[in-house]
Amino acid sequence: MKATKHAVQRPWHRRGPARGVPLALLVVGVLVCLGVALLVGGGGGGARPAVVAATAAGGATSGASVPAATPAASASASTSASASPSVASSASASASVTPSPARSASPKSTAAPASPAAPPAAAGGSVGAAPAAATLAGRIKPGVTNQGVATAYDAADGNGSCLFGPTGGDMMVAAMNYTDYESSKACGAYVSIHAASGAAITVRIVNDCPAPCAPGQIDLSQQAFAKLADLSVGRLAITWTLLSPDSVGPVSIRYKTGSSQWWCGIQVIGHRNPLAELEVRGAGGWQQLPRADFDYFLSTDGTGCGGELRITDIYGQQLTVDGITVQPDVVQPTGVQFAKH
């Protein structure tokens, strides 16, 4: 029994020293490794730049890691950036793509073409739709070629029965035979006239030609006649048609001399197409005024004098004008005009 117990205890004392030696060697080895690691970390930047470069290439939070780097790490970071062109090129590509949509978006909003400006209009003025058919035309109808004779007269300053006043040197004017003049309905109409020779002119009707002028006949100013033939011809066979000219200014309104709030005459000047009606706004709504031979629309009881006006051409298009005060014998522009046909 004793021998067996003694035999078990003896190996225990022999193994204690054997285990202590490896433990001491392990401690020494750890200390040596730590020393080497410290020497390597303080002497160069070989390991740390590799970590920074990998972070930048991986797209991680490099912005947070760079400010926290030591001076040595900063220098190594710049080295790794120059040594990694693929990373730098991808970063610059990302920077150039991002601003591009921003730059292109701004011009799109500012460079959009503005809508075409609308025609100028007077205060309260408006232009109605332009029907195609001249349903309100009288004897002179668009699209109809009229046969007639041209004669010549001394038109002086260009004024005539329509009372438009002097034409300011524009002598391409004419007087319409009284039948087609139709109680001033032809006033202001533009007429295209053709001679057999091929010569052609455009005149504006400012006057009437009484008998013996026959239907179809137009008495031209001497200046206008001379463009078709020599004045010595006297009478010249022509054809003529109603014209809706391209270039005209805005319509103007003029109150007749002696007009007031109790009586007024209203004239429309510079209209592109012949007029059919003029209405004034009364207490009961729109009221049509009669048209005199001298091309004024008369309000004998003062209704609408100085108020809103509605003007209609032979095509049925309407211009509504407001803000025209009663100023006798003063031409007041409206800023609106009838459509071309």
TrEMBL record:
Pfam families: DPBB_1. Residues 179-239 form the RlpA-like protein double-psi beta-barrel domain. Gene3D superfamilies: Expansin, cellulose-binding-like domain, RlpA-like domain. The chain crosses the membrane at residues 21-40. Keywords: Membrane, Signal, Transmembrane, Transmembrane helix. InterPro entries: Expansin_CBD_sf (IPR036749), Expansin_CellWall (IPR051477), Expansin_EXLX1-like (IPR049818), RlpA-like_DPBB (IPR009009), RlpA-like_sf (IPR036908). It comes from the Bacteria. The keyword Transmembrane applies. Residues 92-120 are annotated as: Disordered. This is Expansin (Peptidoglycan-binding protein). It comes from Kitasatospora viridis.
